[in-house]
Amino acid sequence: MAPWTGAELSMLNPLRALWLTLATAFLVTLLLQLVPASLLPDCSLFQYLIRYGKTKAAGPPRPAACRAFDIPKRYFSHFYIISVVWNGFLLWCLIQSLFLGAPFPNWLHGLLRILGASQFEGGEPALSAFLVLVFLWLHSLRRLFECFYISVFSNATINIVQYCFGLVYYVLIGLTVLSQVPLDGRNVYVIGKNLLMQARWFHILGMLMFVWSSAHQYKCHVILSNLRKNKAGVVIHCNHSIPFGDWFEYVSSPNYLAELMIYISMAVTFGFHNITWWLVVTYVFFSQALAAFLSHKFYESKFVSYPKHRKAFLPFFF
């Protein structure tokens, strides 16, 4: 496991700069939401950009011109279609290189170099990046399945900026994983020329955490969808209700907490020390915390009997 050195910390390549910027932006946005509204200038456009779905109802009235850019929240499925196809392609390229010795396409290799792909000296074990890319693809495939067969979408909306951001996000996240693969020219460099020889205890721990977090997220999505169905599984309404069970007993948005845990499991799989991925985790933390906070405020404003002990995102803390 490579140590965190001062020189490594100072290397702010394009990907690290991007994820650091996104994390900072969502941190500032979250902090602004914690400030009493009376102390801030009225900015309905800002609230329009950060809210989606049910949380739009709890925000200020949207500018009339903005409503033309609303699209159905069910279009979330497009994010996962893009991810399954694009990250599946990246995974296929990695498999070809790892097991058949095929080099990356010129355009992909050039893009990875621009983004800051590591060279083989002191680079990540190829097995770590391979497992994380597999996790990312499986996560996207499960979420796509849930969008089609589990989730019950209402007439809630997202705006076009959020939609475009989501599409770009799943392209960038796959490139971020692939850029952590140690390269020797256009080929993947495998230490010892044997992928299985790179297996370490943190790969097993990361895999177990990924399965555990994914199972809880799936269960939370099932609980949410069942609120809109009868006992026969037939959708009877699209209203919001108070969910109970599993992690809902502790936080209002356990699906967002599980999302964070999934990304932390990937950081563990990278061996704990991958700075680029921890910046991704930091972004995920603040973005999911913001969404969870807004969702928590919605539940509190809509249901007078909402459980007082529930936190928004982190059990017992926030």
Automatic annotation (TrEMBL):
This is Polyprenal reductase. Keywords: Endoplasmic reticulum, Membrane, NADP, Oxidoreductase, Transmembrane, Transmembrane helix. Pathway: Protein modification; protein glycosylation. The gene is SRD5A3. InterPro entries: 3-oxo-5_a-steroid_4-DH_C (IPR001104), Dfg10/SRD5A3 (IPR039698). It is a multi-pass membrane protein. Plays a key role in early steps of protein N-linked glycosylation by being involved in the conversion of polyprenol into dolichol. Acts as a polyprenal reductase that mediates the reduction of polyprenal into dolichal in a NADP-dependent mechanism. Dolichols are required for the synthesis of dolichol-linked monosaccharides and the oligosaccharide precursor used for N-glycosylation. Also able to convert testosterone (T) into 5-alpha-dihydrotestosterone (DHT). Belongs to the steroid 5-alpha reductase family. Polyprenal reductase subfamily. One of its GO terms (molecular function) is polyprenol reductase activity. Residues 200-318 form the 3-oxo-5-alpha-steroid 4-dehydrogenase C-terminal domain. Its EC number is 1.3.1.22, 1.3.1.94. The lineage of its organism: Eukaryota, Metazoa, Chordata, Craniata, Vertebrata. One of its GO terms (biological process) is polyprenol catabolic process. It is found in: Endomembrane system; Endoplasmic reticulum membrane. Pfam families: Steroid_dh. The chain crosses the membrane at residues 79-101, 122-140, 160-178, 199-218, 275-294. GO terms for cellular component: endoplasmic reticulum membrane. It is an enzyme of class 1 (oxidoreductase). It catalyses: a di-trans,poly-cis-dolichal + NADP(+) = a di-trans,poly-cis-polyprenal + NADPH + H(+); a 3-oxo-5alpha-steroid + NADP(+) = a 3-oxo-Delta(4)-steroid + NADPH + H(+); androst-4-ene-3,17-dione + NADPH + H(+) = 5alpha-androstan-3,17-dione + NADP(+); 17beta-hydroxy-5alpha-androstan-3-one + NADP(+) = testosterone + NADPH + H(+).
